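Input/output pair, single chain:
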Amino acid sequence: MQPHKMRYLVPIVLAAIGALTACSDQNPETASAAPAATAPAASKAPHIPAENPVIVSGPLIVEHQLDVLAQREDLIASLHADVGTRVKAGDLLAQLDDRQLTADLEAARAKTEGTEAELKSWQAEAKVLDADYDRATKLFNAQLIPVEEFEHAKYKAEEEHWEVRRVQEALATAVATQHSLELELEKTRIRAPFEGIVARRYVREGEQIARGGRMFWISGDGPLQMRFTLPEKFIGQVKRGQQLALCTPDLPDQTFKSRVVEVSPVVDPASSTFEVLVVVEEPRGELRPGMNATVNLDGLR
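Output:
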């Protein structure tokens, strides 16, 4: 090779060797990671957990359910109903000893009748004295009797009218006493307040019951209802007349229809909840008051 060509090849070879040396000094990991750092990250869809349906639970209740209490202290003379007895409003459940009250009431009635007769007698006497007063007035005006005789007839008639007024008040008192005893006598007859079934009996015959003591637990058997609360965010989503599915763990294979009959118009500020009342629609099968039930409010979020 000619010398003048060698001058041009030497710089080119040295430049190529320097480039190869620079590439060999780079860290392989850094070199391979660089493209990955600049590559755009793969996009992933956000994970949204599925919302569970709103399910509430509570006991089945009825509108009419209460303890029948004794209204006076007395001895239980007889029982006319027991657990399981179906009763109508006004049916006799028990009878307290009423002998003393019956005797007192008979005496009060006799006194009332006697006072009525006395009043009629005083009223007749007052009419007689009124006639005497009228006659005395005419005679006095004709100057046939002195003023003393006229005033005697006048004041005698007034006295009789006051006596009539006194006996009228006595008659009113006698009537009130008689009515009070009739009410007390009625309290000795323990009656069912509404139609239902005797769920519990607390007393026995011959037992001395105190005023306010429990005697029977009466429960209506329908319509079955369930009352529950929901967070305030659902207050616009629950409407009257809305149909809801109801079930109970006691009857796992059955589902019952319920209907919203009451939605509270206000929110409880203490709990931030509002109250909802549903009623079980017929047929209700084997559902009983007191069973625990659940309602599925599907669609509420």
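The longest helix spans residues 99-141. Residues 98-187 form one domain.
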